[in-house]
């Protein structure tokens, strides 16, 4: 482990980040390739195996990173602080990044609102709509229970966001910054590794779903492009706020919303909302992520890292 105040080499930081990215993908194939377990009998069993593998990889990455970083103290508050797991300024770390992220989905949100209004008109408005709304809220408990037992919900909104943000943000970014990489370099290097960790989707598209080579390449290429963009944004949020909650909840929200809606036939308001949202996002990107809004220190970002490692 590096001693107090001592930085780590750039080559070690990069090699560690690459190793963690590869480990995150390769461990998914341990049950069948190395342990020689029989193929999963159901999709649920298949995903549970992957959940366990992702959890093992995440814990191993966190422990290994802790031994490499020049952490001053082994107290839980210090170590968790390096990973961006903090209680202070928590609501700011959740609310402001979510508001910022939602601006990109202004078109999607407007489209959902228009569909809701159309449904309201079809139901005749007034009492009929009130009954419809009441019926909707009555189905929420059953929907929650159904979602809790849905393995895809766990994958998209819990396991994947938590493990990916811990490995690709909490572990990698402190390593790169402590190695002397510039903030901009760290912001764009992590997403490259983040996107490479999704290359296994090509195998699933090509083999499991019987897609053609060209179609699988196009689908995965689009996914990789999206993950690079989102990964850069998530890294930006993590560095600016020092909170894991910021990229984590943005990740969950983006998984729920999917790709932003740019336009809809016969609904120009959707396109206008999307453009307005993008303009608002660009204008508020830095004001809503000022480090002083998320930290007590007056130092420049990433102030949480300097505090945890060298104070």
UniProtKB/TrEMBL annotation:
The keyword Oxidoreductase does not apply. The chain crosses the membrane at residues 12-30, 51-74, 94-115, 136-153, 173-197, 218-238, 244-262, 269-288. Keywords: Endoplasmic reticulum, Hydrolase, Membrane, Protease, Transmembrane, Transmembrane helix. It catalyses: Hydrolyzes the peptide bond -P2-(S-farnesyl or geranylgeranyl)C-P1'-P2'-P3'-COOH where P1' and P2' are amino acids with aliphatic sidechains and P3' is any C-terminal residue. Residues 151-257 form the CAAX prenyl protease 2/Lysostaphin resistance protein A-like domain. It comes from the Eukaryota. Its EC number is 3.4.26.1. It is a multi-pass membrane protein. One of its GO terms (biological process) is CAAX-box protein processing. It is found in: Endoplasmic reticulum membrane. This is intramembrane prenyl-peptidase Rce1. It comes from Arabidopsis thaliana x Arabidopsis arenosa.
